Amino acid sequence: MFKTAFKALLPLLERGALTADRAFSGYVQPRRARGKLLLQPYVGWGTPGRVELRGRVLLPRTVAPARRTDPRLRNAQNVLRRLFSREVGGVTVSGVLNGQRAAAVSDSDGYFTLEFTPPSPLPGGWHQVPLQLDGREVQASARVQVVADARFGVISDLDDTVIQSDVTSVPRMLSTVLTGNARTRLPFPGVGALYRALTRDGEARNPIFYVSSSPWNFFDLLWQFLDYRRIPLGPLFLRNWGMDLLGGHGGYKHGVIEQIFQRFPDLKFVLVGDSGEKDPEIYAEVVHRHPGRVLAVYIRDVTEAHRDEGVLKLREEVRKAGVDLVLAADSLNAASHAMAMGLITPGEYRSVLTSVARSYET
């Protein structure tokens, strides 16, 4: 009964919160825009003929670079500074890619999206986009991933798939997320070696996309974590902090994956997630929606036996569609399957094996 009543009230709560937010923004945004501003670009992505770059305009915050020796209290303070960001709307942001200029105005949450359609096709790989707030000296540089000539792509969750977050236990998750930083948070054994093998860094790179329910406020923390742990970098798709987080995890993730599949209609994908939330169900539906587009599904086992039973049932359904779903406790089983499919080489498999073995030794 409570759940039914809450679902009925949710639209009213959302409309009330939206009205209050607009009223507050209408008052405070013009005043914020007159002060010192911070330009926070995210990671652009696209094809040789179309690129999208998102970012945010904020008031500056003081977050010192992460160190392994930072006390837990300082980490918690930095997390709170990220969460309670102060957004600035109504500001024009411009950028230049391959000689083409694009501009957009930040919305009430500070977000802006630049869209580029270069007159000549861009080469695959990473590109730099200089950004500027019009009429100000504030500048930044954004990275853009252009996908061309890839064998396949990788779509991966982050929490409890790449980074240990303990999402199945709320107290442990809060302790991990609130008191850790980019240097102290831990990856799962072998995940860096596995992802480097799948993306083939240094060759015709296979793109990787990270889709997470974490808020955009944590973008810099997650990006620094990936870079520090030598895990291949790629566009991050996160969620807006606030009422948007009340929406279903599955619906949000479905939408992002559909967007990626539509942008690259000729590209096949490997899907990587964990058993802690709804990744197996989401990926199973993606397999059925897009026959022949999914090469394999790798699910990290982070839950108890009763959840595993449900995932194994999904595995049988997915197998009927011609796709293997691998449920494994570490990266090694996924690497073994990937090697058998020819997605990675025997040498790359041995690198994953060595990485996993070393992690258990320390």
Automatic annotation (TrEMBL):
Phosphatidate phosphatase APP1 catalytic domain span: 152-301
InterPro entries membership: APP1_cat (IPR019236), Mg2+_PAP (IPR052935)
GO molecular function: phosphatidate phosphatase activity
Matches recorded under Pfam families: APP1_cat
The protein, known as: Phosphatidate phosphatase APP1 catalytic domain-containing protein
Taxonomic source organism: Deinococcus grandis
